[in-house]
Write a structure and sequence with these properties.
The chain is built from 14 helices and 22 strands. With 562 residues, it is α+β, with helices and mostly antiparallel strands. It folds into 5 domains: 1-82, no CATH class; 84-206, PAS domain (Beta-Lactamase, 2-Layer Sandwich), CATH 3.30.450; 220-311, PAS domain (Beta-Lactamase, 2-Layer Sandwich), CATH 3.30.450.20; 313-394, Orthogonal Bundle (Helix Hairpins), CATH 1.10.287.130; 397-562, Histidine kinase-like ATPase, C-terminal domain (Heat Shock Protein 90, 2-Layer Sandwich), CATH 3.30.565. It has a 5-stranded antiparallel beta sheet with strand order 7-6-10-9-8, sandwiched between helices. A 5-stranded antiparallel beta sheet has the order 12-11-15-14-13, sandwiched between helices. A hairpin with a 4-residue loop joins strand 6 and strand 7 (97-100). Helix 12 packs antiparallel against helix 14 (524-534). The longest helix has 47 residues, at 313-359.
């Protein structure tokens, strides 16, 4: 519209009208803003945004409340523009500064080492490498669009600053675009924090131990983060673990006392360290060295728990082997203590038997029984020696041996020992390869297995001893002690009561026995296992409750006789 100046000349001004409401939203006045459009085109006549170019007049409802609202609105605008941490500046359509806040002036002094003033063209301060993109963004905003982009600016030091720049068009009262306002926020610290978080995430993903973070503020403390090692150890994917409590890894073999220890520690907001039996997704067990630590906020309240997992299954197995070796060493000391006394008794038995044979006439029928006593005494001497060798880890005395012949010798002794309701069957391979073994020790193994089989058939049954040749073409994870090549197997099978998997897991442990008090020492299978391992062989057991048990001894064939 056209207005007349007090000096008499006419000028064209832009006028905008806006209702001024009270606290209830009821219009109480009319805000009239009159602006000289030449101020936006002439840098020389343009004043900072903090100084109003147009006259503000209240043409109706000139009340104190209305005047206060106008002053408050102006104060808010000034604070928002000048007090912001962002670099705010206003350009006209010709790239000239109309106004800017102190952050802009500081940034130009720091980066370009120069001052700027209203009316300066910003193109004079834009680096040549960025000028084309700046003009493109500026023209895009003049077209009515808002623009956002990020710009990295070297500040003349080894460091660089990253700015998030937002550009908005400024419209006049006739809705035409009269300029562009820029708001640049320094997000360097934010980007550095993001880079640090990515580094931490990559580091957690690269470590070989499992890391799980649980939210202590949510019911049931669900997992909110797991690293790849945790997925690998447990067999569960991150999607399957997140949102669930880590008790999902426990199972029937997990000690209830350890569960209680963990639960009480979490409830008290403290850490704990346990080695607990957990279960993978496929059901396999693994020993988990679990270290749980609380994370607190600035007030000391527990917000999260971090669980560090290490698969120590191999270590636990090695510790079990060490304990087994220590028990076997104890057995060796015990056997050494009684060996002389036992051999003295055998010497007396053997001497008395030979003296009785000398007293009796050759045709006396007792000679057959006395000869059996002498043979049994000789075997007892060899068994005593083999027990000492196994317990004390002394050298064995291997010879080329046909296991069929050894089984036949054992059979003659077993015929006198087994109950009448037990049938003894032999299934021997006539082409069986010879082995290099200590005959007395292997006999001890076969006798032990056969006696155990008979004990497992209190109501009678069938005891079958089978020999076979076996070729292993490649390493077998189920029998790691066996090398690829030719082997010989001896199976001792019964039709007795069988065993549960829980019992089978402890069969070869010293002092473990399923027999009643006074009926077993728990050393037979442990000693047999040690003898077989000393011969570089393998012993295994398969059993089904109420369907019997089969022990299989596998020994390397003598490569020179094969």
């Amino acid at each position: 519209m056209v207005q007349r100046h007090r000096d008499g000349h006419e000028l064209v001004v832009e006028t905008s009208l806006r209702y001024v409401p009270d606290a209830d939203g009821t219009p109480t006045g009319l805000l009239v803003i009159i602006r000289d459009p030449r101020a936006a085109r002439s840098a020389e006549t343009t004043r900072p945004l903090s100084q109003t170019d147009a006259a503000n007049q209240i043409v109706r409802g000139k009340t104190p409340a209305t005047m206060a609202a106008v002053r408050n609105a102006d104060a808010y605008l000034r604070v928002a523009f000048y007090g912001a941490h962002a670099c705010n500046y206003l350009l006209d359509r010709e790239y000239r500064f109309v106004d800017f806040n102190p952050m802009v002036a500081q940034a130009f002094r720091r980066v370009l080492h120069r001052d700027i003033a209203v009316g300066d063209s910003i193109l004079e301060h834009i680096m040549p490498a960025h000028r084309d993109s700046f003009v493109a963004h500026f023209q895009h905003a003049l077209g009515g669009a808002s623009v956002r982009y990020e710009r990295v600016i070297a500040e003349g030091t080894p460091k660089s600053a990253c700015y998030e720049v937002r550009i908005f068009p400024v419209r006049g009262t006739d809705d035409s675009i009269v300029g562009v306002v820029f708001s640049g926020l320094d997000i360097t610290a934010h980007r550095q924090a993001e880079a640090s978080l990515r580094l931490y995430h990559s580091a957690l993903g690269a470590v070989g131990i499992g890391i799980l973070i649980a939210d202590a503020g949510q019911p049931d403390m669900p997992a909110i983060y797991v690293n790849p090692a945790c997925e690998r150890i447990t067999g569960y994917s991150a999607a399957e673990l997140l949102g669930r409590n880590c008790r999902m890894l426990t199972g029937p073999g997990t000690a209830p006392s350890l569960r209680t220890q963990i639960r009480e520690a979490l409830a008290a907001g403290r850490g704990c360290h346990v080695t607990i039996l957990n279960y993978r997704k496929d059901g396999r067990q693994f020993w988990n060295d679990l270290n749980i630590s609380p994370v607190t906020d600035e007030l000391g309240h527990v917000t999260h728990f971090i669980g560090v997992q290490t698969d120590v299954t191999e270590r636990v197995a090695l510790e079990a082997d060490l304990r087994h070796a220590q028990r076997m060493e104890t057995i060796g000391h015990l056997a050494g203590g009684i060996a002389h006394d036992f051999n003295n008794l055998l010497t007396v038995i053997g001497g008395a038997t030979r003296f009785a044979c000398a007293l009796l006439p050759p045709e006396h029928p007792a000679h057959l029984e006395l000869a059996e006593i002498l043979r049994a005494t000789g075997r007892a001497v060899e068994l005593t020696r083999s027990l000492l060798n196994s317990a004390r880890k002394q050298n064995i005395r291997p010879v080329v041996l046909n296991l069929n012949s050894l089984v036949l010798d054992v059979e003659r002794m077993l015929r006198r020992l087994v109950a009448v309701d037990i049938t003894l069957d032999l299934d021997l391979d006539p082409g069986l390869a010879p082995v290099l073994a200590d005959a007395a020790q292997i006999e001890q193994v076969l006798v032990n297995l056969a006696v155990n089989a008979c004990d497992a058939m209190p109501a009678g049954g069938v005891l079958t001893i089978t020999t076979r040749n076996l070729h292993i073409p490649a390493p077998d994870q189920a029998r790691p002690s066996l090398q690829p090549g030719h082997h010989v197997t001896v199976e001792v099978r019964d039709t007795g009561v069988g065993m549960t998997p829980e019992i089978q897991a402890h069969l070869f442990e010293p002092y473990f026995t399923t027999k009643g008090a006074g009926l077993g020492t728990g050393l037979g299978l442990a000693t047999s296992n040690g003898i077989v391992k000393q011969h570089r062989g393998h012993i295994s057991c398969t059993s089904v409750p109420a369907h019997g048990t089969c022990f299989c001894v596998t020994l390397p064939a003598d490569r020179w006789s094969w």
